[in-house]
Amino acid sequence: MKGKILYAGSFDPITNGHLDMIDRSAKLCDRLVVGVTENLSKKARYPVEDRLNMIRMATSHLDNVDTESFTGLLADYAKRLGVEAVVRGLRVTMDFEYELQMAHMNARLYANGIETIFLMTNPAYSFVSSGLVSEVFTLGGDVDGLVPSSVLEYMKNLHREERRKDESIGIAGRA
Ligand code: PNS
């Protein structure tokens, strides 16, 4: 496809499922824009700046991918960028209803001017979500192989910093 595609999400943090979507979507267009924003129905674990850093590290092998943050409606951002389409991943059938609603709403906001393309998530990552990864990691579980290795190192460093701060005010956390 000529032109740009937008892959937007909260990426809190980026997982190997996201990265697989980025790798595959980047092959479908001239430029892929990874747009990081808040999902108002989720409480973010990582600040946007850290999420951007993690995505940029994980996608440094791709030369047609730009990563940036945005606020407000995805539809407005997609229009400003002038993308050909928005891409979203479907892991399991349960994802479909929510994704279908969003696709229709985004299309409606610009009188059917925004196309959503769905890619099936790699089955190896069909059970992986940022929320689950974040919870397992925070409670001391092993998430190796579920997030890019550079991202895991970044998460560990952030966690060490948080622990140092917590210890200085007497709060316990992940070992
Ligand atoms: O990775 P996520 O959390 O599933 O992504 C959801 C996201 C961020 C794409 C969605 O919440 C969104 O589009 N947020 C921007 C605000 C907006 O446009 N809301 C209306 C969506 S129809």
Structure description:
With 175 residues, the chain is α/β, with parallel strands linked by helices. The chain has one domain: Rossmann fold. It contains 6 helices and 5 strands; from the N terminus they run E-H-E-H-E-H-E-H-E-H-H. The chain has a 5-stranded parallel beta sheet, with helices on both faces. Helix 2 packs antiparallel against helix 6. The longest helix has 21 residues. The protein is globular and about 55 Å long. The chain starts with a strand and ends in a 6-residue tail after the last helix. The structure holds 4'-phosphopantetheine. The site of 4'-phosphopantetheine (PNS) has 12 residues, from strand 1, helix 3 and helix 4.
Please outline the helices and strands.
Blueprint: E1 4-9, H1 16-26, E2 31-36, H2 48-58, E3 65-69, H3 74-81, E4 85-90, H4 93-109, E5 116-120, H5 130-138, H6 149-169
Parallel strand pairs: 1-2, 1-4, 2-3, 4-5
Helix pairs in contact: 2-6
Bound molecules: 4'-phosphopantetheine.
Q: What's the average pLDDT?
A: 95
Shape: globular
Report how far apart the termini are: 47 Å
| Count of the separate structural domains | 1
Beta content comes to: 15-25%
- Structural class comes to alpha/beta
What level of helicity do the residues show?
40-55%
Would you list the SSEs in sequence order as H and E? EHEHEHEHEHH
How many helices? 6
How many E strands?
A: 5
